[in-house]
Design goal:
Blueprint: H1 15-37, H2 41-48, H3 51-65, H4 69-74, H5 78-81, H6 86-94, E1 104-116, E2 122-133, E3 138-148, E4 155-164, H7 168-171, H8 181-206, H9 213-221, E5 222-230, E6 236-238, E7 241-244, E8 247-250, E9 255-257, E10 260-263, E11 272-277, H10 279-300
Antiparallel strand pairs: 1-2, 2-3, 3-4, 5-6, 5-9, 5-11, 7-8, 10-11
Helix pairs in contact: 8-9, 8-10, 9-10
Length: 301
Amino acid sequence: MKAILIQQPIARLPIGLARCKFRLQLFVVLVTGFLLSSCSLSDVAAKILPDAAQTQMVEIIDAVVRKDLEFIKARGSEEFTAAENLDADFEAIFEYIFSGEATETKLVDAQINFKKSLNETSVTYYTGVYERIYKEGTNIYTIILLKNKNDACCNLLNVNVKQFDVSPSEVTKFTFKDKGFKHYIVFALALITPLFIIFMLVKCVRTKGLKRKWLWVIFILVGMYGITFNWYNGDLAAAFISKTDGGVTFNFINLYVLGTSVTKTGPMAPWIFEIGFPLGAVLFWFKARKIARETIRVFDG
């Protein structure tokens, strides 16, 4: 199938339509960038750890599931096998394992650390966080392997198992499924705010004869205070006030470049939207209108 591209010179478009088209393209670029940033973290984690380490981690998980302590000990490092109460600790771990057939096992987070001693002996630590999902719930495995410089692969250093009713990585991922009206409003604000700031920034740079232009540019670039929104549970809070066990904390300085910040601190953490009020952009909007009126009066006079 051949794709046919029909192009129309932008110069033939009316000015208003050309501006609208530019804003729509910028909007699409921002939306696409955000959706790409929320792609599968499992794919990213899988690229961090070497295949040999991932294979060994899955083998250890399978051994934990079948309660094969001898297999686990055989894969352990000296520090691991020398730990006190190792058998009792694993008996406690075995109690957290769901019964039945797992529907999925996936790597959701990974980390590599390096340590080099004075005698030039280097050690590499591989950390993998796996979800094993069952009908009844999900087990989270955190496995740490160590690899000495001349070893083929790795030895087990630590195993930690937790139990959840649901898959944390699934319930905290970015999706519009089962989301309410508040989520759509916040998402729209997260897109509109930087668009408005960029538009006013361009307008500021192109305004001739503007005094203290560089101060206006800095002022327009940032959003102040605003709101914080948890995409997972819909919690909405004012960014300049935070509640703690000891009381209420006021954040007197809270700035966001382009007015919006979207973060996810880990594969099982929720998406957090922080949207600042574009005070500089709003004030310059009024300033630009005033300049436009004064320019009209000069030409009319």
